[in-house]
Amino acid sequence: MARKSAKSKGYRKQAAKKPYLSKRDIAILCVLIVAVAIGAILLFRYDDGALKLKDGAVVTEGDNWLIVNGSNVRGRARYFKLGEMGEIEGYTREAHGIVTDANVPEYAFTPVDEAAGITSITATASHSGAEALAKFGTESLAAIEGTSVGDTVEADINGHAVQYYIYTSEYAVAEEAEEATEEAAEEAAEESEGSDEAAEDADAAAEPNRFTKSLSGYFDAGHDSCIAIHVESSAESADGYLADDALTEALAQAVMAVTLEEGK
Q: Is pTM, for the whole model, over 0.70?
């Protein structure tokens, strides 16, 4: 009787299966996993200089810090110190949070001499570049009735490239205008009821009763931000506007009172 071969008995040589990943692929994968893990740890521990918050308020070490609300990270506001705001000779300084963010201080300087031509100087930080903010400011003001704005000028002040522009505003204060209109109408009615004089006086009362000449200046700081300075003066009429030199001198005083963080 013939012997059956191994093949006829159902024994077949099985080809060895290759692993899905070679030793080289596994080594590369391990390196990538380690790199991702290290990157995540570094990201978690990375200190970008943001100030700490406690109960929603910025923790500071001084009462004269210039602080900006930087870009949001994962839905959280990030605050950074840009520098410090010093004193301006001849002015008193007060600080308060801006309307939209109490953690961003605005410093208001009021002249000690009430007869001074400058009404006020304010300084704060803005999360915007100086050039972009100056462009936005001039374009916005140009669209306001009764406002005349000049060209943006760049000046080197205390080592900073300051972008600034000067503008005037002439407007009527609502309450005073209404009172004046009523008084004028009553007086005119007593003298000549129904006359054209009453209408003329009423129209005159609606004329501008506030006249201001202002300067807005900006210079770049750290964290893609800038320091914004506003100088304002008031006048009894358009003929009494302060000279440009007085406004630029006040701007220079404010800029020199700012100390930016080292390297900014």
A: yes
